[in-house]
Write a structure and sequence with these properties.
Blueprint lengths: L1 H12 L13 H9 L13 H11 L5 H10 L1 H10 L6 H9 L7 H14 L3 H11 L14 H13 L5 H10 L1 H7 L18 H8 L28 H10 L3 E2 L25 E2 L9 E2 L5 E2 L5 H13 L4 H13 L6 H12 L9 H10 L1 H4 L11 E2 L2 H11 L15 H4 L22 H4 L12 H15 L19 H4 L5 H13 L5 H13 L5 H13 L2 H4 E2 L1
Helix pairs in contact: 1-4, 3-4, 3-24, 4-5, 8-9, 10-14, 12-13, 15-16, 15-17, 16-17, 19-22, 22-26, 25-26
Length: 560
């Protein structure tokens, strides 16, 4: 009986309609048709369907009906185990397929297409969402010097995905040695001072690895609040002298396999030179003098470039700011823009020690973030300062995933999302990401001392452009629409068509998929009246119009 019940639940999640289960996605009918059909079946699952949908909207690029049912069946802990153990979905194979096809040019749009494909359809959704979060913290961008580095950026993103749930210290080193980061922030071919030429080491990476990738500008308590001096001013974490010393640490690094006697002119294609492998040092260009780092730690002279790098990254990794600085930003990316200090403290403590004496265990940190009472307790949903504005790209992907979007070619022809969304993967305008974690929208948000990061890319213009894109995704992007772009992903609305003439059942279904049960009575009444009064007799056009309006509603745009 139990196996048959699970099979019916699975078929239900796939939108199967037979044996009287046409409306099996309606919670009431689902329970009566399945739970009560088998007397030996257990009662309601511990995780409600709305709670499952809410969790998936925090941890993936959007909830699917089948995944909601699966999560209900296995529970959060097992779901996290499953996701973390899945094979990693990578971009490099897609880029290689383009290279192998003489009719396809390899442009940044190829990489963007791969990102959409993996984000929308990758089985390892949690990892893909985590990689996207890391890409906005450890920023490199195709805007500028990396504009032609398609494969290199794909490999950089893959590196973030592979390291998603590893140790922060390992990720920090992989980022530091990555050639794309070396190009982007000046560590590549960064040579020690030359008194004759009057040159000094480039300070760019030294500055950004401290300010943006690890500790921030001001000393923090473990709960993320700033430590103040006697005059109530924040205390800086470092000064210019520290930057200069770190800049001297980050000297001597070049392409992997670069000959010791060819610092300036070696390049991929020569001998054993590898443009994508982690950078390697040429010791003659490394500064071997003593260096004083954070908190006065002295690095002795005479060390190799790798020894200095190890000492410097350990120095950063063990700084007390790292747990709250990283933890708070990850909470902002996944759960809420304004976590309480107590929430940040609980997660920071896990970052500092995962329970087995390990610092920087990102799997443990993410479990702490997502299972915390402030993430799971529904009582927080009604608090005005709780939640976050969804990033434009995530809003779009929510729609694609909820309705199982597919394109006739299997490709994702969304090549320039930045034109409407002001976002593209690894395409931010600067190292400061698309928006800053401390951005405050002027008005009530700033007046209350709150932050609203994603609102930094929200304006009158983007409200219109995103609305236009949502119209393309719904009214011009469903399975019966003859779209001019045969690589455009089209929403598969066959399941919704089965209940199009039952407004309440349809809205129950959409409330679960898109709102995690949080659609307000006002919104429901408004869209129900609109839907019932649509004169178009074409059912799919009516559904598409309904989805378009819902995609613009406050409850969909704000994640709680």
């Amino acid at each position: 009986m139990k196996n048959i019940r699970h099979l019916l639940i699975l078929l239900c999640g796939m939108g199967w309609s037979s044996m009287g289960l046409t409306y099996c996605w309606s919670d009431t009918i689902f329970k009566s048709n399945i739970e009560n059909l088998f007397p030996g079946a257990p009662g309601s699952p511990a995780l409600s369907e709305n709670d499952a949908s809410r969790f998936l909207n925090q941890t993936t690029f959007g909830a699917k009906l089948s995944e909601i049912r699966h999560l209900q069946g296995v529970g959060i802990d097992n779901w996290l185990d499953e996701q973390i153990s899945l094979p990693v979905t990578l971009q490099e194979p897609c880029m290689q397929a383009v290279l192998d096809d003489p009719d396809l040019p390899l442009y940044q749009n190829s990489r963007q297409e791969s990102w959409f494909l993996n984000s929308a359809e990758g089985e390892d959704q949690f990892r893909q969402r985590m990689a996207f979060a890391w890409s906005q913290l450890f920023v490199v961008s195709d805007q500028g010097s990396l504009g032609n580095e398609v494969m290199g950026l794909a490999k950089y993103y893959d590196m973030l995905a592979l390291n998603a749930f590893g140790n922060y210290r390992d990720l920090l080193e992989d980022v530091t040695k990555n050639t794309m980061m070396g190009f982007y922030l000046g560590m590549f071919r960064n040579a020690k001072a030359d008194p004759v030429a009057g040159t000094q080491p480039d300070e760019n990476y030294a500055r950004e690895v401290l300010q943006l990738f690890s500790i921030g500008l001001h000393q923090l308590n473990m709960d993320g609040t700033e430590i103040l001096d006697i005059d109530d001013n924040p205390i800086p974490t470092y000064d210019q002298t520290v930057i200069e010393n770190f800049a001297r640490v980050f000297t001597g690094w070049n392409y992997a396999g670069c000959p010791d006697n060819n610092w300036e002119w070696c390049h991929p294609g020569q001998d054993e030179v590898d443009g994508y492998a982690p950078m390697e040092p040429i010791e003659a260009y490394h500064d071997t003098d003593p260096k004083t780092l954070l908190n006065g730690q002295l690095v002795p002279g005479g060390q190799t470039a790798q020894q200095d790098l190890d000492a410097a990254l350990d120095n950063i990794f063990n700084h007390p700011n790292v747990p709250p600085f990283i933890s708070k930003q990850l909470i902002q990316r996944f759960v809420t823009s304004n976590p309480s200090p107590a929430y940040v403290l609980r997660v920071s403590n896990v970052f500092a020690n995962n329970g087995s004496g390990v610092r920087g265990d990102m799997e443990a940190v993410m479990r702490a973030i997502l299972t915390d009472d402030e993430a799971r307790n529904n009582s927080f949903i009604t608090q005005p300062a709780y939640g976050k504005l969804k990033e434009p790209l995530i809003r779009y992907l929510n729609i694609l995933r909820a309705f199982e979007a597919r394109s006739p070619t299997g490709r994702y022809g969304n090549w320039n999302p930045e034109f409407a969304y002001l976002q593209r993967a690894l395409g931010s305008p600067s190292v400061f990401n698309f928006y800053k974690p401390g951005f405050q929208l002027p008005g009530p948000i700033r007046d209350q001392g709150l932050v609203s990061p994603e609102f930094q890319i929200t304006s009158e213009t983007t409200v219109v452009t995103i609305g236009n894109e949502m119209n393309q995704a719904t009214n011009r992007g469903h399975h019966l629409y003859n779209h001019w772009n045969d690589s455009m992903p089209l929403l598969q609305l066959q399941r919704e068509l089965l209940i199009h003439d039952d407004t309440n059942a349809l809205l129950d279904h959409l409330d679960l998929l898109l709102f995690a049960g949080q659609m307000s009575a006002h919104t429901r009444t408004t869209v129900a009246n609109m839907y019932d009064n649509l004169e178009d007799d074409d059912a799919v056009e009516r559904i598409a119009s309904l989805l378009y309006v819902l995609s613009l509603s406050p409850e969909f745009v704000i994640q709680r």
